[in-house]
Amino acid sequence: MSDQEVKTESRVFPPPANFVANAAISGMDAYNALCAEAANDYEGFWAKLAHENLHWHKPFTTTLDESNAPLYKWFDDGLLNVSYNCLDVNIQKGLGDKIAIIFEADGGEVTKVSYKELHAKVCQFANGLRSLGVKKDDRVVIYMPMSVEGVVAMQACARIGATHSVVFGGFSAKSLQERIVDVGASIVITADEQVRGGKQLPLKAIVDEALGLGECEKVAKVIVYKRTGGNAPFNPARDLWMHDLVANQATECEPEWVNADHPLFILYTSGSTGKPKGVQHSSGGYLLWAMLTMKWTFDVKPSDIFWCTADIGWVTGHTYITYGPLAMGTTEIVFEGIPTYPNAGRFWDMIQKHKATIFYTAPTAIRSLIKAADGDAAIHPNKYDLTSLRLLGSVGEPINPEAWMWYYRNIGGEKCPIVDTFWQTETGGHMITPLPGATPLVPGSCTLPLPGIMAAIVDETGADLPNGQGGILVVKRPWPSMIRNIWGDTERFKKSYFPEELGGKTYLAGDGAIRNKETGYFTITGRIDDVLNVSGHRMGTMEIESALVANPLVAEAAVVGKPDDTTGEAICAFVVLKRSRPTGDEAKQIALELRNWVAKEIGPIAKPKEIRFGDNLPKTRSGKIMRRLLRVLAKGEEITQDVSTLENPAILEQLKQAQ
Ligand code: WTA
């Protein structure tokens, strides 16, 4: 990667005066002072924050245990409960009647739940789970729509020390089954149906299908939230309705006090090889960082109406819907639907209606709404009153400067800072991001690491690279909210994140990055492994390839990403069939079949946008597929590289054409 690859952006937006005056971290001096504090006494820095911010049932005495690195432990001899910190602590502070969640359903109905009410719901559900024998360390799979009940289910697990594993409602029965089996779940919580964009989509039927695929004998009960009352299958011997389970339960529930490193959740994410990885997160360190990033990055204040548009099936929904905002006693919006229903003004309408002050979404959503606003003046953001907003956020993928500027002007009215937050499922919370009261913003840059996060750019041997030179993004010291393990696969954990080549103790993010020569600002240049980022969703190319070759028609498949104006990257698959290469209408027909096949194997988010058929794939003489060349072909560019090492250079010509 060279300096030229990153276009220099010269626009700079200093923090607005009102932020500098009131922000948790006010001005670059305050930021630098915190960074210096962390550098001078790393453990002392974190210990102080953990004592100040969390309620400990029994305080910890050891801050960081590195004796078994990279299996780090933080605050582990301390006892706490995450749900107690989110609910009871805030009620004790007098926030019982404050609205915790403003829920807006797909069709527009609004339900408001106070902290006291949420506490009662969580306790009842936690008691219900206990009545079924669920206890500390059991794993519970949650396959639910965006709903108050989804948040309640997660918090209820936390309350009794059960470890939840949320599976995004867009995943197929097969993906769900793989996760149920891998995590060893004894309970599945779901809904009869989910409602998105005016359509009712099955959830319970998919759970039944998943359980029918085998190896799920451990699942003793399926708890069903009645969302629509639609026609979902129901097996009274195994299934029970959520409303029946909670009906006679007490509204108080003694929390299970757990060690700080007790696994709060396991969330599956795509890696470069093989099956999705169960990223295991802690309780204490994770919650601490969820709270600190709410304060530092979002500068959240008691009067804020916070809206994170992510789904609880992804890490962003965990940290910035279920845990961070509630731990801070914030009022937040939870939205069931999609940004384009009933029209593409839905987000702007909801900001206006609920007077949202902080809005956090993904660049993909912004880019698709720009297109929609350009095409239909009636839903242009300038038709809505968005003056309640004071801060905007972006997450999940790089935000291109054009989209940044549109967001800044049209949504933020040129007065709201944008925090471009770089982080990952594995990091638990933000890692590199501007601070709204301190950092001058540069469109397209996530700027600087948060205090305490020792991010750096190194070469393949782990040697530091100077600013201006692109390399591998690493974090040199463990931090409290980091991934603790890959569920059931410590070896893979070590190999994926703490490779020997980098000394075995440096966290490898899997992204490339470059720092600006003058400012030291970070720009993320994209994944360095075989992970694609499609609409902010992480997809492993190997996963999609495995799904394709599982189809009886397919002999071989190679999947690469290609740049896409809306989704960031799009999936492009090169496929060799067992029979001869199809062309014309037949190729179209088979491509359609294969796309639907992948949707069934993994989920609709993994459908290739484009499928090209060849007699073969470009391979080296040792049989290795040259993905590098396929990426060039997918982009529609001419191949300029040397192809003399190819076994079959002629194949490139055939694969050049999109079908
Ligand atoms: C990418 C989502 C550029 C990156 C929270 C990372 C980003 C992957 C940004 C993690 C950003 C996330 N700028 N790239 N602000 N945020 N990414 O695990 O490639 O779903 O490794 O976590 O998304 O995706 P994940």
TrEMBL record:
The keyword Cell wall biogenesis/degradation does not apply. Keywords: Acetylation, ATP-binding, Ligase, Magnesium, Metal-binding, Nucleotide-binding. Acetylated. Deacetylation by the SIR2-homolog deacetylase activates the enzyme. PROSITE patterns: AMP_BINDING (PS00455). Belongs to the ATP-dependent AMP-binding enzyme family. HAMAP family: Ac_CoA_synth. This is Acetyl-coenzyme A synthetase. The gene is acsA.
